[in-house]
């Protein structure tokens, strides 16, 4: 029987956990044994007693939990002591930040661990239930609107009262992926007037279906601005200039701007310049969801709220899903639960088929080396 270990997250600001009592019950029913480090779920409001009731064994330390594991489930990459404790050939599954956290990848490779980066789960139909980027981006988009409303300090919906009318807030979403769509839906539910922009033409219909207005330069480059995998391509300097001119006047009239644009393996594209920020009204807010990859907004700082000379505020909060730790953990643990089915053969024995298209796309270290083509290059 293969043992899955779940340890406490130790990266700064990480409040999520890789398994919940619900997922542990199902893992055990599938034929795994599960060991959980004591205190692993406390920041996500899950006490040890609930893990024990679900059938998990509790371990005093991360080293004790990882040392007996065939599989280590994490939210973020494991720390050095956890890697050192692993059995040779153990499987590690986590959001490994593979393009940026080379140190962890190299340590896993040196240990002889096989590592699966949840960021590399392919966007194909059968892998949708394993798509951790999407599950967490959904929550990030929701939380971005909540954070924006909090910092903005005014009402989002129009309110007609005996004392007068409060105008609806204007919210502009830049980048309409999973996070952007959820931000649109949330802002609309809260009564804001919402506009959105994206370089991918397929998003126009999605934006309008949510009751928001779409804004983009719709030229030939725009029509071909999406990869086969559904990601945005990096646009030419010429297109970026035309788009910047279009949105500059728009940004100046907005109360809340939320930027979500990311390109896998590259720094986040610059969407909002200092001049555009300077054009905004006092009290307006920019929420930069791409802050951990350098940010979309000029002047944004990781982990800070920057107040500009004109009174606008640029919010660079990292790990927004971590601010909804219970729900984020529940969704992420279901992603891992779905992935775990690929680790068993038809007889229910632990025998990962690394030729399966999902596992093949997501394995980043194996056999003592970093093996993913995107990382080797």
How would you summarize the topology of this molecule?
Blueprint: E1 3-6, H1 21-30, E2 33-37, H2 48-54, E3 57-59, H3 62-67, E4 71-76, H4 80-85, E5 91-95, H5 102-111, E6 114-117, H6 132-152, E7 159-161, E8 164-166, E9 170-174, H7 178-189, E10 193-197, H8 203-209, E11 213-214, H9 220-223, H10 237-251, E12 256-259, H11 274-278, E13 285-288, E14 305-307, E15 313-315, H12 325-340, H13 357-362, E16 363-366, E17 369-370, H14 373-376
Parallel strand pairs: 1-2, 1-4, 2-3, 4-5, 5-6, 9-10, 9-12, 10-11, 12-13, 13-15
Antiparallel strand pairs: 6-16, 7-8, 14-15, 16-17
Helix pairs in contact: 1-2, 1-12, 6-7, 6-12
Outline the structure in words.
The longest helix is centred in the middle third of the chain and has 21 residues, at 132-152. Strand 7 and strand 8 (164-166) form a beta hairpin. The chain folds into two domains: 3-120 and 325-364, NAD(P)-binding Rossmann-like Domain (Rossmann fold), CATH 3.40.50; 137-318, NAD(P)-binding Rossmann-like Domain (Rossmann fold). Helices cover 34% and strands 17% of the residues. Helix 1 (21-30) runs parallel beside helix 12 (325-340) and helix 6 packs antiparallel against helix 12 (325-340). The chain has helices spanning 21-30, 48-54, 62-67, 80-85, 102-111, 132-152, 178-189, 203-209, 220-223, 237-251, 274-278, 325-340, 357-362, 373-376; strands at residues 3-6, 33-37, 57-59, 71-76, 91-95, 114-117, 159-161, 164-166, 170-174, 193-197, 213-214, 256-259, 285-288, 305-307, 313-315, 363-366, 369-370. It is an alpha/beta fold. The strands form three sheets. An eight-stranded mixed beta sheet has the order 3-2-1-4-5-6-16-17, sandwiched between helices. Strands 11-10-9-12-13-15-14 form a seven-stranded mixed beta sheet, covered by helices on one side. The radius of gyration is 22 Å and the shape is globular. The chain contains 14 helices and 17 strands.
